[in-house]
Backbone:
């Protein structure tokens, strides 16, 4: 069984490394008013198949290694006193409620498939809780994956072209092509970096977490090879993050720097502070050089005075108003998991082109709109309890996980992919599982 445990561990690391690649088989595509309705599309990702292999092997491992006992209510309720167990069962209750929402959703099949993907992601929590994965190894794999993504992203930006490859799950994007995410300046249209992900903002969020993990690794590094790995990844990830031009990712990263700097200063560990200062210096130097070279692009994104940026902001405001209207009319049960955009079509305007129907770019409006007040209350309680217990008895690992989860939640104020995409959901529940793993009995 030790070999099985090791197999699960290595497959888990492989899953993390491959997670950004969007290879999938689309088995239901929907055209709405002449255009593809992206959020009605159903597909099976290659990483989902790998995850199911891990889940099956994990179930086999549990079956043979965990003792089977008769259910005892007294033992069960006694264990609920442990924060980790209590939150774990709250997550299970949340998954059950999300599944039940399929029965009152406008599209049962869509809600059911989104629920299956949610359960797949939540299974990561159970796997992390039962198997002793080290954060250092996860951070190394995450950083290596981000390094590959960064090289691809940098190439895309300088060539202004993202090539298509169905086997790698890559779609074609051109700076002059319709539907591509670009920046508009006086010098023309500039394609933002995607990596292998479906949107530059999604790549930005992934790279922010990679930088947080690199900082953690830098404070743990003792060998020359480890420092070379950190430096190599740092000098490609920072430019790639810049070329995503993702404001939500930038805000989250600067929030991390502010909080982590304060925490590190309070620790009075000069060795850590010296290493951290070097990382911040390299980050700042690369960012300043790129800001000078691409000042017009940066100004366009930060000031948001162009027509394209103004339109983006006005759309986000419109999406928020739609979400509030849905909540007002169906606050108890919600519209059903994954059915937000369909509800907008059916209840607001059925004549818009398919690409216009998008989730609200704020999961604190999106979750209650889909799962109602009870689902949102469960979701919020899970997060509050994890933050509360991670905040107590802080150490470096707890703080890194705490801030990683906090950065996800900050980004989620401005975007929805940690809820709507399988990739984002897997990242969210994986990081949450790491946080739950670090909780100890009071």
Residues:
């Amino acid at each position: 069984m030790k070999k099985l445990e090791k197999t699960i561990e290595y497959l888990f690391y492989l899953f993390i490394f491959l997670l950004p690649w969007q290879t999938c088989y689309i088995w239901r595509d929907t055209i709405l008013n002449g255009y593809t309705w992206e959020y009605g599309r159903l597909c099976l990702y290659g990483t989902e198949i790998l995850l199911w292999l891990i889940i099956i092997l994990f179930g086999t491992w549990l079956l043979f290694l965990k003792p089977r006992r008769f259910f005892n209510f007294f033992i069960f309720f006694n264990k609920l006193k442990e924060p980790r167990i209590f939150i774990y069962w709250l997550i299970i209750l949340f998954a059950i409620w999300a599944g039940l929402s399929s029965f009152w959703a406008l599209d049962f099949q869509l809600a059911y498939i989104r629920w299956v993907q949610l359960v797949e992601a939540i299974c990561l929590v159970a796997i992390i809780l039962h198997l002793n994965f080290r954060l250092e190894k996860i951070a190394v794999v995450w950083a290596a994956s981000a390094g590959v993504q960064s090289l691809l992203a940098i190439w895309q930006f300088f060539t202004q072209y993202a090539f298509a490859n169905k086997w790698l799950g890559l779609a074609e994007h051109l700076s002059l092509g319709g539907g591509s995410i670009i920046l508009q300046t006086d010098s023309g249209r500039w394609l933002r970096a995607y990596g292998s992900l479906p949107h530059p903002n999604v790549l930005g969020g992934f790279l922010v977490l990679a930088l947080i993990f690199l900082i953690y690794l830098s404070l743990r590094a003792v060998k020359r090879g480890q420092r070379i790995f950190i430096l190599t990844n740092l000098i490609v990830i920072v430019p790639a993050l810049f070329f995503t031009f993702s404001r939500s990712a930038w805000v989250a990263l600067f929030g991390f720097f502010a909080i982590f700097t304060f925490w590190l200063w309070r620790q009075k560990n000069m060795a850590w502070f010296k290493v951290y200062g070097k990382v911040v210096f390299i980050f700042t130097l690369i960012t300043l050089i790129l800001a000078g070279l691409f000042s017009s692009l940066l100004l366009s994104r930060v000031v948001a005075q162009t027509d394209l940026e103004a339109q983006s902001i006005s759309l986000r405001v419109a999406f928020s108003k739609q979400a509030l209207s849905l909540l007002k009319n169906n606050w108890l049960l919600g519209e059903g998991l994954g059915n937000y955009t369909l509800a907008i079509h059916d209840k607001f305007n059925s004549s818009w082109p398919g690409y216009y129907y998008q989730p609200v770019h704020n999961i604190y409006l999106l979750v209650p709109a889909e799962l109602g007040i009870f689902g949102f209350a469960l979701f919020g309680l899970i997060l509050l309890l994890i933050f509360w217990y991670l905040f107590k008895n802080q150490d470096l690992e707890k703080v890194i996980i705490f801030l990683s989860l906090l950065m996800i939640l900050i980004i989620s104020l401005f975007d929805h992919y940690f809820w709507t995409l399988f990739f984002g959901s897997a990242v969210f529940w994986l990081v949450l599982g790491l946080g739950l793993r670090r909780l100890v009995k009071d």
